[in-house]
Amino acid sequence: MLKYKIIFYIFLATLPLFFVPTAFSEVYIPENEYVGFYDHDGVYTVIAGIKNSETFAAVPTLTIEVNDNGKIFSDVYQFSAIMPQEMLPMKVKLPQIISDDPVLLPPTISYQQSDERFNGGYIIYDDSLIIHDSDSSLTGKIKNGGNIPFENFRIYALIKDKNHNILDVSASQKFDLMSPGEILDFRLLANPSIADQVDYYSCFAFGDDAIQFIPGKRNGESYPIRYESLGWFAYPEFSNDGSDVSLVTLNNWPVSGFANIELQSHSIHEKFQVYLDDDEVEFTQSRDEMGNWHIAFDLPKYFQGKTKIVGIQDRDGTVGEVGPFDIVVNDDGTLSVIENNSNTFSGIEFDNNIFLLMIIPASIGLLLVSVYRKKKSSVKN
Q: Sign of the CA dihedral 179, 180, 185, 188?
């Protein structure tokens, strides 16, 4: 009888495990889907497929750590929402890594629940899904099998060789709107430097049109820049007076691409000029509902150089006040969320899994002690 009581108590103590998510499912990166290497441009690149095994859409936050000749590089990246039971391909370039033999350390992932924006979207697997011999690009069709429209999205996929090694991540053209039941054509490109190695594409996923964040400092103050583009922008350098900013720019693709750079609005009188290297280019300038400037222009194919934006002014009171919180760049390169004119904002995340790992053994121990004492008491009586 005592044996059955012990089994019953252990079952009660472990019952929460069946209702609280554990680290053995949820959102993770399979071991063979996480790689780091120097790409064809000599830039250290991390590629992964992030799997969402939850029953809801999740926005993943990934901490990437690299041992760069004894120095640990660590940075945090947030990606677009992953639909339930799908995998999202991701790629991050880390030009800070320069040693001959860097070591990519195991990833750390956290996530939060999100709306299911692309529920019911899928790739149509039929004769229309083709890898073209000429350039190893892939074309096919997608369908919105859900009940709501899809807005501002791309199709993402991993590119692999015949040995199943990850070569790159590819993103399709941007889709502004896809109505329920609609079928659209999409295309994924492979960089020419890897075209002869491409064997297949995998881990197709609908994802938000990626908006990248670049931390920067202007005149000693935080000045983050965001962009949306087929190309890559990094390393913002401001002039001494802060009136212009230069960004290292790279477009590896054999097609020109749209670039949209978002800047803080300091004055309604800010009028910009845009240069690619020394050549002035045509662009459009607009403001969004939050008051930020958007500078849009075409980025030529295979462009490697600098984008220079001229015309940044100091605040003159002609635009709204600064928001209650801001993202600032610390001296060590990390980011903090601060309340303007106040102290640094910080928060503590509570991990249910760690709590369970501590409380369940303790509960079992207390139950066993309790049963043992009752048995001993009954023997004495």
A: positive
